[in-house]
Amino acid sequence: MTEEFKIYIDRLKGGLVQKIEGAFHPSFLEVNEEELQFEQPVAVRGEAYLTDDHLILHLSAKTFAEMPCSVCNKMIQAPLAIANFYHTEPFTEIRDAVYNFGPALREALLIEIPRTVECNQGKCTSRETIEPYMRPETRQETYFPFADFDLKE
Ligand SMILES: [Zn+2]
After folding, report:
1. Do the beta carbons of residue 5 and residue 28 sit within 8 Å?
2. How many Å lie between the centroid of ligand 1 and the Cα of residue 121?
3. What pLDDT was estimated at residue 150?
4. How far is the CA of 147 from the centre of ligand 1 (A)?
5. CA 120 to ligand 1 centroid distance, Å
6. What is the pLDDT of residues 54-94, one digit of tens each?
7. How many Å lie between the centroid of ligand 1 and the Cα of residue 136?
8. Percentage of residues in the chain with pLDDT exceeding 90?
9. Contact between residue 102 and residue 1 where contact means Cβ atoms under 8 Å apart
10. 142 CA to middle of ligand 1, Å?
11. pTM across the whole model
12. Ligand 1 mean position to 78 CA, how many Å?
């Protein structure tokens, strides 16, 4: 586990608030697909503190996801951000008084990934040339789950 994502519970006892601020390498997002990649650092700001029996994380984070434009397929950087994300973790779930907030941050960010993006701030210049040939039903990919079955057998 990355040192940077660790929160030491003992250091927060007595009402202390730990400031979290940094740029984290995107490898903790564990995403590397042809149509979804992260190359920019993930900028994180926030704080961590304790209640009677929970650790509270309050974070904002931003980065860019590399995704293909849904019209022209060019890879573009889509902004990805979470603001005022809260995560609570009961002490009973925290081992050895050290909490790694990487997985919670990862989950919060991945949920926010847009399904589709378009280059040129949503106005892909290829749209005009392609649109007359695109009917709504042909824009979606069609899956034939049994296409591999040989029914003649
Ligand atoms: Zn485009």
Report:
1. yes
2. 9
3. 56
4. 31
5. 7
6. 999 999 999 999 999 999 999 999 999 999 999 999 999 99
7. 17
8. 75
9. yes
10. 22
11. 0.79
12. 12
The domain of 13 spans 3-139
- Cα(122) to ligand 1 centroid in Å equals 8
pLDDT mean across residues, the chain: 87
Query: Is 120 part of a structural domain of the chain?
Result: yes
Phi/psi at 77 (5° precision) = -100, 115
Q: What is the mean pLDDT of residues 98-119?
A: 95
Residue 62 maps to a domain: yes
Could you tell me if residue 148 is inside a domain? no
Overall number of domains in the chain: 1
| Residue 151 within a domain | no
Tokens of 24: 């984290």
3-state secondary structure of 78: strand
Residues 130-143 pLDDT 10s:
777 766 655 555 55
Please give the distance, rounded to the nearest whole angstrom, from the Cα atom of residue 140 to the centre of ligand 1: 17
CA 76 to ligand 1 center in whole angstroms: 8
One-letter amino acid at 57 equals L
Q: Other C-beta atoms within 10 Å of 108: how many?
A: 17
